[in-house]
Amino acid sequence: MEDLFGNDTAAEALPVGSLAGAAHRDAPLAVRMRPRNLDEIVGQKHLLAPGSPLRRLARGETAMSVFLWGPPGVGKTTIAAVVSRSTNQRFVEISAVTAGVREVRAELELAKRELARGVRTVLFVDEVHRFSKTQQDVLLPAVENRLVTLIAATTENPSFSVISPLLSRSLLLTLTPLEDDDIGGLLDRALLADHGLAAAFTLTPEGRSQLVRLAGGDARRALTYLEEAAAGAEAEGHVVIDLPQIEAAVDKASVRYDRDGDQHYDVISAFIKSMRGSDVHASLHYLARMLEAGEDPRFIARRLIILSSEDIGMAAPSVLQTCVAAAQAVQLIGMPEARINLAQAVIACAVAPKSNAVILAVDAALADVRAGKVGTVPPHLRDAHYSGARSLGHGQGYRYAHDAEHGVAAQQYLPDVLEGALYYQPTEHGNEAGLLERLALLETLLGRR
């Protein structure tokens, strides 16, 4: 007996997952529109070049294991589906959310028996970051000995969520959010394809733009909204999908905010300037406008991280940690809950004391370097660990800071051409007021004052 991917299931039925049973006509539009080959995949051009590892994997030319890392809706499961259709290998899907060590061991044992018969296995593990260390350890021998070809999908950085031995034996492929043109092309294809909406509806230009914007680079979200909007239009006896149907489908009011037009730039500009100006209420207003309009929360989080160093910096250094934590929360839990984490970061940015001393310092240092003021590293600071370094004078006369009084060793650190340069000049705001006193003391101890 064979399943829909042509796999022999006589020995044991495959577990049900996001790819199982996906071909029937009542499957969600996002499932029906999954590409059938690599050429139908939208976006990810950096992974689809001729001869790329991904193309070799899809053709069954390599037994490498890969980790697919990227945000939701960018094609991780799609790539697994394409591989399942493109190779003659046995395909097994398990979800790290539901599978335990026993299930993983059972699948690997079955793969071993199938390999003895000359049949290789592609094992797709969805949300692999949810596997415990013990579960990941179970996979390691199978990957190391190429008992299976592992395709593991994750929305979290594998460097932090996957054990190093497993990651080092696999290829890491990073997927990026889809561009607006990619989303638009996917919507057009779904409207016309026989396995999509089969040309039963037309989409107004305004409706198309709204769907693209609301998708936020997520193909699954775009197709889900389109399907629901089409169902609403059909219920009303319409064949045209316009803005009202789309707004009803996503259950939110229309907000005048064009992600590619003046409104986008005006609102994000007002958002940043309100936080810089310490108006917490205006800052929250512009955050709400962006969230309600469907702005990508990752974009908002990135702007907060930048502002926390550019406009606050050492005046309140903990704000950077708050903003980074908010960005991680967006990645971990998503919307709508992550609105709370973003709001906390916005409030922290708005009420914090302000200083632009950090950006002024690094830009001044960069300006000198770009102007050619580099000079040679003072001999006593050069690396003296390799053979012959001492004979060149490297390290001679170097004073070890921990042996000096107050832990500060007075000696030349900058190249001759930059001796006396001052880059970081703290303000008297917040934490920097204390740093101002500390820096004055350091300058004295270093013999500069």
The CATH architecture designation of the largest domain is: 3-Layer(aba) Sandwich
- The spatial strand order of the largest sheet comes to 2-3-4-1-5
Backbone structural class: alpha/beta
For the secondary structure, the number of strands is: 7
Shape: globular
CATH domain class name of the largest domain: Alpha Beta
Main sheet properties: 5 strands, parallel
Rounded average pLDDT: 84
Radius of gyration, whole Å = 28 Å
Q: Which percent range fits the helix content?
A: 40-55%
Beta-sheet strand percentage? 5-15%
The end-to-end span amounts to 85 Å
Number of helices: 18
Which segments are poorly predicted (pLDDT under 50) over 5 or more consecutive residues?
1-18
CATH fold label of the largest domain: Rossmann fold
Strand and helix order: HHEHEHEHEHHEHEHHEHHHHHHHH
CATH homologous superfamily identity of the largest domain: P-loop containing nucleotide triphosphate hydrolases
Please tell me the total number of domains. 4
Q: Which key phrases capture this entry?
A:
4 domains; 5-stranded parallel β-sheet; 449 residues; Rossmann fold; single chain; alpha/beta; Zinc Finger, Delta Prime, domain 3; two-stranded parallel ribbon; Helicase, Ruva Protein, domain 3; globular
Helix-strand layout with pairing:
Layout: H1 29-32, H2 53-58, E1 66-69, H3 76-86, E2 90-95, H4 101-116, E3 121-126, H5 133-144, E4 149-154, H6 158-161, H7 164-168, E5 171-174, H8 180-192, E6 202-203, H9 205-215, H10 219-235, E7 240-241, H11 243-250, H12 262-276, H13 280-292, H14 297-312, H15 318-333, H16 338-351, H17 357-370, H18 431-445
Parallel strand pairs: 1-4, 1-5, 2-3, 3-4, 6-7
